[in-house]
Design goal:
Elements lengths: L1 E2 L2 E7 L2 E2 L3 E6 L2 E8 L5 E7 L6 E7 L2 E8 L11 E4 L1 E3 L4 E9 L1 E3 L7 H4 L5 E18 L13 E3 L8 E10 L4 E9 L6 E9 H6 L8 H50 L18
Parallel strand pairs: 5-17, 12-14
Antiparallel strand pairs: 1-2, 2-3, 2-6, 4-5, 6-9, 7-8, 7-13, 10-11, 11-15, 13-16, 13-17
């Protein structure tokens, strides 16, 4: 999806996933993507101009999972113009990847308070804010504890999330804290200059809701024509094979007749056989 000089997309297992029903309103854009249980993904964005510094905030299922600052090209020409976020740090030495998981649904009324809380489940948002930079210092990233985590959730059946997915963390693994540009500053505006929203559901649900288009009748007819053409070619190949077998049998019979004639001729007279004659002499 694109908003002015900004673009954003989701990669699942390293591949950009297709988007459906893209909608654009002013400084926001939304679409649908198909989620897959157990598959890891990343949120990616690109700034084509880098006219001024911005901060990108990744919000998954209503939880802020990452803040990343992209500096302007004029003062920081060697800094990257694109960013991909695929994990959350869990300590100074560990992190966990984002992945899609199935939602657990219960009819237990003790989970009624989850109905309202589950409204944001099924959305991945990227907000881009203009910022004013006051200081940039390169230092080792220090983990901030206490942030919300993406764990398996149980929601009440009234939330209408049965069969849907949500995002959880994968297994924790070692990853030393990187050296990053720590930026001190503030946001300039009261609202983001661009907001991308990816609404995700299982493929079958999107197909049943006609969000993912079904194959058209034209495509079906084209497939039938192709199948008929392939069948005709297979029949033609079968005929050619049969003709080849018959031709080979006739050749064997002719060679056999020549061999018998040669043996009869040997009893009457002797003669030299030309080197290029089509005769096989089997006498000793």
């Amino acid at each position: 999806m694109h908003i002015d000089e900004y673009s954003a997309w989701i990669c699942i297992e390293g591949l950009a996933t297709p988007v459906y029903e893209v909608k654009r309103e002013s400084n926001s854009a939304s679409c649908w993507i198909a989620s897959q249980i157990g598959r890891k993904f990343s949120v990616n964005w690109y700034n084509a101009s880098r006219q001024y510094p911005v901060q990108a905030t990744v919000i998954i299922d209503g939880n802020v999972c990452d803040n990343h600052i992209m500096l302007d090209a004029q003062r920081y020409p060697n800094k990257p113009s694109g960013v991909g976020i695929s994990y959350a740090r869990t300590s100074d030495w560990t992190r966990r990847d984002f992945q899609f998981s199935s939602i657990l649904v219960s009819d237990d009324d003790s989970y009624l308070d989850t109905v309202q809380a589950s409204v944001d489940i099924g959305t991945i948002s990227l907000q881009i804010w203009r910022i004013e930079v006051q200081e940039v210092v390169s230092e080792t990233l220090k983990h901030r504890y206490g942030a919300p985590t993406l764990d398996d959730r149980i929601v009440h059946e009234r939330s209408k999330k049965a069969g849907a997915h949500h995002v959880t963390y994968g297994d924790e693994y070692a990853s030393p804290a990187p050296t990053v540009d720590m930026v001190r500053g503030r946001t300039i505006d009261t609202t983001p200059i661009a907001t991308f929203t990816f609404k995700y559901r299982p493929y079958d649900i999107l197909l049943a809701s006609d969000i993912i288009p079904r194959p058209s009748s034209t495509q079906v007819k084209m497939d039938e024509k192709t199948a008929a053409k392939i069948k005709r070619l297979e029949n033609r190949i079968s005929v050619l094979k049969t003709q080849a077998k018959l031709s080979g049998t006739s050749g064997i019979q002719k060679n056999s007749a020549k061999q018998k004639s040669a043996r009869r001729a040997k009893g009457r007279s002797s003669f030299s056989v030309p080197l290029n004659a089509d005769i096989i002499d089997l006498t000793l």
